[in-house]
Amino acid sequence: DELSELAGSIERMKDHLRADAMQKLETEDAQRKFLSNITHDLKTPLTSVIGYSEGIIDGIAPTPEKQMKYVQTIHNKAIEMNDLLNELSIYNKIDTDSIPYNFTNINVKGFFGEFAEETKIEFESQNAEFNYVCDVADDTEMVADPSHIKRVLHNLVSNAVKYRRDDTELKVMLKVSDAGEFIQAEVADNGRGISQEDLPHVFERLFRTDKARNTNIKGSGIGLSIVKKIINDHGGQVWATSNEGTGSIFYFLLKKSSDKEEPSEQDSDN
Hints:
Layout: H1 2-57, H2 64-96, E1 101-102, E2 104-107, H3 108-124, E3 129-135, E4 141-144, H4 146-162, E5 171-179, E6 182-189, H5 210-213, H6 223-233, E7 238-243, E8 247-255, E9 265-266
Parallel strand pairs: 3-5
Antiparallel strand pairs: 1-9, 2-4, 5-6, 6-8, 7-8
């Protein structure tokens, strides 16, 4: 009996070591793919910056109008690279649980309205439609770090743009509503949608859906994991629903402000 128990323990240990080894290999493979995607995502806009700047230097853009178009493209591509580098910075801080927060009371309508106004202008330049609805009282406030919640919104909207359908005009709706002690925000799109198999995993780090893996859609696979981390650190929740071919809806909850609760600063941990 003792020998049987020992043999069983050894087999269980072997299974455990085998599982650990497989997980390590999968993690290393994911890291390699992650670095490959990041390299591509940085190289693409960088190539444009180099190309358009050389065009200006070589005189290919002789008129002020064409020069302005080149400079605007360079500016847009530089912003694209900066956004990606910022995401990488946050991604690295997730490992050490050291994302800095500065929580404050924010007027809900003012904050989301400003984001919606900026996004609507961007969408119009891309032949896409962005709509905004806010069903909360004018004086409603939430406790949040505005810069990080703006990143959450930016990541969700960017995700909708990335997975837009080729056969129809992209339409995105931001809806903000009262949910008792929380504010609920929804970002809905009419894009490609997510399979029911992939849906439970979309907030996992380095996860990319089947549609992303099987097409030329590029991405780091960290955007939605950052969304989840930020919302969780705010004491909220995030989830998604989706149907392939018709689009997705991403939801998140943020705590309302109250007279009893004072915002607090968090410099390095949560």
